[in-house]
Amino acid sequence: MAGYRGRIAPSPTGYLHLGHARTFLIAEQRARVAGGVLVLRDEDLDASRARPEYARAMLEDLAWLRIRWEEGPQVSGDEPGAFGPYRQSSRFTLYRKVIGDLQRNGWLYRCTCSRRDLASAARAPHAEDDDEPLYPGTCRDRGCVGEGALRFRVPEGEVVGFVDGGLGPQTFVAGRDFGDFVVERRDGVPSYQLACVADDFAMGITEVVRGRDLLRSTARQILLQRALAYPTPDYFHCALMVDAHGQRLAKRSDALSLRAMRERGVSAAEVRAMALGGTVR
Ligand code: GLU
């Protein structure tokens, strides 16, 4: 049996906030309790949004919080670990190979729908926390060629069930809870779903700890793992941070960035307690 390998996977598209702190602290705790290894993967996939100063800040903020990871980029600049590079922008060769594997087995099709087509045709996202609307399948059987995204043809009606370490049994149905999703964007950039599955497999990750807003992404990723004959890791979805009234925090709340809190004089211990408690006071 291989040992526990967990990961934290921040995207350097802004400053880390209390919600990230919560997920990453839980991820670290789980790795420590299991006597395992924690990997940091810099998810700087999207060059139009990722910025080096955010990548630097996220390492500093995590170190300030006293989160420790054994593999991946460090504040000091070296990158321990045998599964690197740990920055997604340096891993495109792997993603291309995995996209090729899916393509050869008939899982993908070209979608030439414009942004406007998608906006008018797509039904609203199923859940308020899902970021990818249900694609109505316009290009599924059209044999589109030329410029366009590559979509994964989800097996209509296939049940994706798993027992979540935090939330218990989960069930999703392909084609109902989510539709054919993008694995490579029109501009050639692999999607989050694709890169995440490729990396979690290549880095030998045994448990994925993430926020519960990503449950449907997990279901999509399990379908990709099945298509690629990869093992499915364990999953642990964390409850999201809420305010004193039980309302979920807005995605980007600058006042709750770790930087801003630190500048206001909030200590790392206080941030840890608040994040693990799950409520902003
Ligand atoms: N980079 C993603 C995020 O920050 C990672 C999510 C995940 O797969 O854990 O939301």
Automatic annotation (TrEMBL):
PROSITE patterns: AA_TRNA_LIGASE_I. It comes from the Bacteria. Its EC number is 6.1.1.-. The lineage of its organism: Bacteria, Pseudomonadati, Acidobacteriota, Terriglobia, Terriglobales. Belongs to the class-I aminoacyl-tRNA synthetase family. Signal peptide: none annotated. This is tRNA glutamyl-Q(34) synthetase GluQRS. Residues 5-264 form the Glutamyl/glutaminyl-tRNA synthetase class Ib catalytic domain. Keywords: Aminoacyl-tRNA synthetase, ATP-binding, Ligase, Metal-binding, Nucleotide-binding, Protein biosynthesis, Zinc. One of its GO terms (molecular function) is ligase activity. The gene is gluQRS.
